[in-house]
Amino acid sequence: MGNSKSTRGFANESEYQYQPPGPNDSRSPCPALNALANHGYLPRDGKNIPQEVLQRAAQQKMGLSWLATKVILKQSYKTAGHDGLLSLSDLCYHAPDSIEHDGSLSRIDATLSNNQQGKFNQERFDKFLSFSKDGKYLTTEDVAAARLYFKADSHAHNPQCIWNKDIEEAMWTEASILLHILGKNGRISIEDAKLFFEKETFPSNWQKHPSFGVRERYTAAKALKNAARRINK
Ligand code: HEM
């Protein structure tokens, strides 16, 4: 599934230097969207973003296809938007129909963190990294094991854990785009994962995916689910 609908690219890349967010800037539970704002592909304050601005940034900078972006944005603006706009912190909205969910790789569950589900948590992220078997890369198998671990942990320790079919699917989808958009061919280096999650920036030698569409997303999520099945056997 290619980028069947095009948006304007970012002409002068030198204008998009990294700047860490200020105390009043709005940030989300998604490291990718935060990185886009930290580089100015989204408004740096992260506030009141029209859907087409987010569509362009996810498509042109991250390589998500037009349709794959549209699907996730439709749900985001429907559940968390206000008057057709979205501030990044609106994505912390936590409910059965929200994109934000429990059992994340780098954030503590809403009810266990006094609603800090949008904030990066170093301890949790270090636990995620500990699933790397060689200490250099996170592979499909490593990420599948981590995903299973954090899901089970939330179910065991969070009496108010919200879980359903859509959340289950979102959990595999996010992990698959991490491995294929930020990483390559189903694995990501620990070094790149640290830059992406801890600093919310793009690795220096990183190149965007040519077009990560609905079909690629399905195949990648399936590979992760198959790896999880092998672990559970
Ligand atoms: C296109 C628009 C996008 C929207 C609206 C969006 C939104 C979100 C939201 C709300 C979460 C929080 C889920 C949770 O509670 O864990 C999330 C997580 C995540 N997103 Fe995005 N996202 C988008 C694109 C991307 C892209 C292009 C990537 C590429 C790598 C990405 C990578 C991730 C990852 C890895 C997580 C999991 C974080 C964790 O578990 O700690 N997202 N996203």
Automatic annotation (TrEMBL):
Instruction: Give me the stretches of Polar residues compositional bias.
Output: 1-17
- Report keywords, A-Z: Heme, Iron, Metal-binding, Oxidoreductase, Peroxidase
GO MF entries:
metal ion binding; peroxidase activity
- Chain spans, region Disordered: 1-33
Tell me which Pfam families the record gives: Peroxidase_2
Cofactor(s) required for function per UniProt: heme b
Please give the Gene3D superfamilies that the UniProt record associates with this protein. Chloroperoxidase-like
UniProt cross-references to SUPFAM superfamilies, sorted A to Z: Cloroperoxidase
Q: Which residue ranges does the record assign to the Heme haloperoxidase family profile domain? A: 14-225
Family stated for the protein in its record: Belongs to the chloroperoxidase family.
Q: What is this protein called?
A: Heme haloperoxidase family profile domain-containing protein
Species whose genome carries this gene: Adineta steineri
Q: What is the lineage of its organism?
A: Eukaryota, Metazoa, Spiralia, Gnathifera, Rotifera
